[in-house]
Structure formats: C-alpha cells, structure tokens
C-alpha cells in the first residue's frame, strides 16, 4: 500500500482537534500539523502527541499555509484536513483501497461533507451538496489564492469523486462561529475588492437579503428548523459584513465631509 501524508493547519483548535486526530489514528507516519502560534494550548497538546509532527509558522492566508505544507509532504499522496473535520470509517477504507490499487485513476478527489451545526445535521440550507478536494497527489495539486473557500486549482488535472464522506463540525459554540464568519467576511472583502470599486445600498441591503432568501427558502433552510433559520441569518450577516469592510476600506484616507 502506498503511504499517505496527512496535513492539518490550525489556530486555537484545542477544543476540537482531538476528535479529528482520532479518525486518522495509526494511518500515517507523516502526520503534520502547521500551527499559526495558537494561544489556547493547541500547540502544547499537539507537541504531546507522539504521532504528530508539529510545525509552527506565521499565518499569511489559508492557501499559503496549506501549499507550504504540501510542498514539504514526505509522501506523494496527501490528505488535507481541518480540525473540525472527521474522516468516517467508510471514507478511510475507500482511500486505503485506492492507495493499495495498482494505479490511482485521478490526480485528486472530491470528498462530500455532512455538516453539523448546534448539534444537528443540516441536510438543506445550501449545504447538501457540500464537497471539497482533500485527497490528491502532492506534485500535481496546489490551492488557489482565495482567502475564503480556497480550493485546489483543478486546471489541467483529472479530478474524481469518492463515495465516502466526512463529518464537518463547524460549530464549537456560537461565539466561535460568529468570529469565524466575521473573519471570513474580512477575507472575502479582500477577494471581492478588485471587482467592486464602489459599495452601495445594493451591496449592503439587496445582496444580504437575497443570501438569506437563497439559503432559507430556495435551498430549504426552513426544513432544517431553528438551526436552518440561524444559519441562513448568519450567512446573510456575513455578506453584509463583507461589504461593510469593503466600504470602510474605501473610505480610508478620504477627507471628512
């Protein structure tokens, strides 16, 4: 069987990463965690784990951090995970079967995610088709430069899809989730700035309202109960914050009226 390198990037994940590490236990001799100088004990926890190779590096962005680690992976085939993602036994067996096969047909593979929020799996709210590329060949794949929802650049590579899925526990507590949305909104503002020279009422009112309508009505968030309502509202708030950050950036250096 081909060996596999497993990569995490972390910052203040002490409350959640052990569940993810348990799902890949005993799988790799190259389990690397690149930590951005956590302040909550994450680095100390990881340093105490014999199977973990801890690296600490200043954070410049998600793609930069992951690409740095991928280039240094010991093995050709790589699995990249976030601390809030858990590999299911079915997915692990499927990846192991690929690693044991005479040839691996694709350069990279999409993996579906089942999302859990406030203790409930959200089957609608726009999350039903959630998938990410996380298993791929080290020498053929790199992440794009987006700050939010960064993904492997698929240009020029052959991408397959695995049947097995992973569980995504995006919710640690409400403050943690809101901080995450705020952080994503700031990064998203940087991603959208080149194509949005002016922020107006359309961006601050219409786009957030439509985002709520999209998730809650069109994508069936109402079927996910109160959790779907909260998630749809938070997604809309994230869009509002994105353009608020952009407007604040545009106003820097402008004379006061």
Q: Please state roughly what percent of the residues sit in beta strands, choosing from under 5%, 5-15%, 15-25%, 25-35%, 35-45% or over 45%.
A: 15-25%
DSSP helix fraction = 25-40%
Global shape: globular
The CATH C-level name of the largest domain is Alpha Beta
How many strands in all?
Answer: 9
Characterization of the model:
Helices cover 39% and strands 22% of the residues. It is an alpha/beta fold and 257 residues long. It has 2 domains: 4-169, Spore Coat Polysaccharide Biosynthesis Protein SpsA, Chain A (Alpha-Beta Complex); 174-251, no CATH class. Strands 1, 2, 3, 4, 5, 6, 7, 8 and 9 form a 9-stranded mixed beta sheet that branches. Strand 6 (108-117) and strand 7 (120-122) form a beta hairpin. Helix 6 (201-218) packs antiparallel against helix 7. The protein is globular and about 55 Å long. It starts with a strand and ends in a 6-residue tail after the last helix. The model has no long low-confidence stretch (mean pLDDT 93).
Give descriptors for this structure:
257 residues, alpha/beta, Spore Coat Polysaccharide Biosynthesis Protein SpsA, Chain A, 2 domains, nine-stranded mixed beta sheet, 9 strands, 39% helix, globular
